[in-house]
Design brief:
alpha/beta; eight-stranded mixed β-sheet; 8 helices; globular
Length: about 250
């Protein structure tokens, strides 16, 4: 396999490295991600159960599945997936994030194989997974098609790639940038760059060009009355996409 150019944005890595120590604080800079996490986890579980003929109600419904959480941060998604039985590999280019992730996993007794590395390096090493996750990562890389291709290369035949990201619309600028960063201050200012948000058709093209068939798309919206996130047909701001390799 020829060398893969890195899709890593060093400025983005540095930004999230500075928040490493606060990843697990539900009231800290990552509070919005903590609230969003149950919807991500449920969607991944249900898609995996459907694809691999599992019962999503079973506590070990992901047992035997090897899953990669690329851009895992400090592991707030990797850990609950591991608790559902998955053989988890959590990868992040920020050493600081991986150190926090390992410390937290050791303290809670959850087994996750955390690695300070990139999608490109893992693909070069020939790693293969039943499911590859790129959750809230796509909008932080410098080359979306190249990043998706590296991720897709690691999906086993019959496996899944699931991505969650932000749509590039005026609505997302108003809600995800102005609202979330400047008005409500859910996330630190500068967390997102609107011009790096990815339209669904752009992500679809990247999936398909990498040999994946799109089998699911779903929006995620915030319900202020219930103070929680929920799945929706509205993909104007947050959305998730699932592809499979036949």
């Amino acid at each position: 396999m020829s060398g893969r150019a890195s899709s890593i944005d060093s400025a983005e890595v540095e930004r999230f490295s500075r928040m490493a120590a606060t990843w697990w604080d539900p009231k800290g800079p990552m509070s919005a991600l903590h609230k969003f996490n149950p919807q991500r986890l449920g969607y991944i579980r249900d898609q995996a159960a459907k694809n691999f003929d599992r019962d999503p109600k079973k506590l070990d419904c992901l047992k035997g599945l090897r899953i990669l959480d690329i851009g895992c941060g400090a592991g707030i998604l990797s850990e609950p997936l591991a608790r559902l039985g998955a053989s988890m590999v959590g990868a992040d280019p920020a050493e600081e994030n991986i150190e926090v992730a390992r410390t937290h996993a050791d303290a809670t007794g959850v087994e996750v194989d955390y690695r300070a590395t990139t999608a490109e390096a893992l693909a070069e090493a020939g790693e293969k997974f039943d499911i590859v996750l790129a959750m809230e990562v796509v909008e932080h890389v410098v080359d979306v098609p190249a990043f998706v291709d590296s991720c897709a290369t690691m999906v086993k035949p019959g496996g899944l790639m699931i991505a969650a990201t932000l749509n590039r619309t005026l609505k997302s600028f108003a809600l995800a940038i102005v609202g979330a960063e400047y008005v409500l201050r859910w996330v630190p200012r500068g967390t997102h760059q609107w011009d790096k948000f990815v339209k669904p058709e752009e992500l679809e093209r990247a999936f398909e060009d990498s040999g994946l068939d799109i089998i699911g798309e779903r929006g995620v919206i915030y319900n202020p009355l219930a103070d929680r996130w929920q799945l929706s047909s509205d993909m104007d701001v947050n959305y998730m996409m699932v592809g499979t390799r036949k």
